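Explain the record.
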Amino acid sequence: MKSFLRRYFFIFFFRLGDFVVQVRLDISRISKRFADKTILHEISCRVEAGQCFWLVGRNGAGKTTLINILADLIAPSAGTVSFGGLSYKTDELAIKRVLGVLPDKNPAIPQLTGWEYLQFVGLLHELPPDECKRRADSLLSYFFDESEDARKRIETYSHGMTKKIGLCAALLHRPQYLILDEPFAGLDPVSAAKLVQFLQQYLTPERAIFLSSHDLGYAQKIMTHIGILEGGTLQFVGSAEEFASSKHTLEESILQILQPKEHNINELAWLV
C-alpha cells in the first residue's frame, strides 16, 4: 500500500521549492477586450495531468490571445489562470520554472547561433552547464537534420528552422506544462512527423499540453481533449471521445460548429 501511494504521489505531483503542486491547468472565465472589441468572453476549461488540449478556431478567433494570456505575455481583462493552484499574481517565477512556451512570435535572438541561444535559455533556467550542453545536443540532434545548423546564426534560419529552435528552447528545462501555438506551421513533413512522435512520448501522466493548431492531421494524433473557439466563446469543450461522431469525420464535425452555413462556390463561377 505504501509503495502504491508513493508511486501515485510522484506521478501526479511535483515538488517546487516549498510547494507541492498538482499538475493541472485551470482557465476560469477569461475575458479579453481590446479598445471596444471583445476578443474572448468568459473562457473556462481545465487541462489535467496526462491530457493534451487542442484549441481549434478560425483565423482571428482569439486562440493566440488566449495562449498569450496563459504564457503571461498579456493580462486578461477578467478571469483567472492557475497552474496547479499557483497564479501569476503571487507565484510568477514558480510557474515559469515548470512552463514551456512556443509563442506565435518566436522570441529567439537572431544574432545568436542556435547553440548559443539554447545555452542562454539554459542560464535563465539555472541549468548546470554540463547538463545544459547535454540536453541541447540531444534536442538539436533530434529536431535538426544537419548538425552544422546549430552553429549558424538564427537570423539565417528558415521559418521552419526558427520554429524548431523555439521548440528546443521551450523543452530545454523539461517543463511539466507545454503550451504550443501553431507548432507545425512551417515544418516540413519529416519534421512534423518527428514532432508528433515526440509529443506522443512527452505526454506522460505528470505533464499537460495545451496546443493550438490548424493542422488537423497532426493535432488529432496527439490530442486527448478539444475546445472549439468561435465568436469569442468556447462552443465545445470535452474529450476526443465526446466529440467523436460516427456519422462525420473530425474535420466535418469541426466545420459544423465553425461554419454551419454552406458557402456557394458558384459565386466564383467567373473564376473557377
Remarks:
- The first helix runs from residue 2 to 12.
- The chain has ten helices and twelve strands.
